[in-house]
Amino acid sequence: MELTKHFYASGLKGDFLNELFAHKEGDFEFQFGTAHLKRGMKTPVEGVFTKHDQNKIVFILEGKAKLQFEDNAMEPMVLQQGDFFKVDKFEGHASTILEDMKLVYVLFGKKQNN
Questions:
Q1: What share of the chain is helix, strand, coil (3-state, %, to 5)?
Q2: Full DSSP string of 89-105
Q3: DSSP class of residue 109?
Q4: Who wins on pLDDT, 12 or 56?
Q5: Plot region of 63 (φ>0 → left; ψ -120 to 50 → alpha; else → beta)
Q6: Residues 96, 74: Cα–Cα separation, whole Å
Q7: What 8-state DSSP symbol labels residue 71?
């Protein structure tokens, strides 16, 4: 057993993600971490939408953000404390942070290049 005290990055530009745990078994990869995002920040920091080659699950612990999907696949939505959402691999998404936010994320699945 390994006990790790969780913590958040500073939330400043370029320092908002903190990977706490990563595991790979064959082609399957799993990554768990935290993020601290400041009001007014946009993700991705550069570009319009981000896509991951794995599924992503996010649980909002504090704050509020507007989430949008590429090609208007879904209506934009406001996420806040207690909300949980899943983004499928290669699904383009972006967010604007409306209130300072802390969250927990999980990336999982077989990684592949698009």
A1: 5, 55, 40
A2: TT--EEEEEEEEEEEEE
A3: E
A4: 56
A5: left
A6: 16
A7: G
80-104 residues labelled b (16+ CB within 10 A) or e (exposed):
eeebeeebebebbbbbbbeeebebb
Question: Is 102 in contact with 35 (CB distance < 8 Å)?
Answer: yes
Exposure on the CB side of residue 12, measured as CA atoms within 13 A: 1
* Residue among 111, 59, 72, 71 nearest 89 (CA): 111
Question: With pLDDT > 90 as the criterion, what percentage of the chain qualifies?
Answer: 57
Matching residue, tokens 């990869």? 29
Whether 6 contacts 36, CB under 8 Å: no
Cα→Cα distances 21→15, 26, 63, Å: 17, 17, 23
C-beta atoms surrounding 63 within 10 Å: 19
pLDDT tens per residue across span 43-54: 887 778 999 899
CA 111 – CA 53 distance, rounded (Å): 5
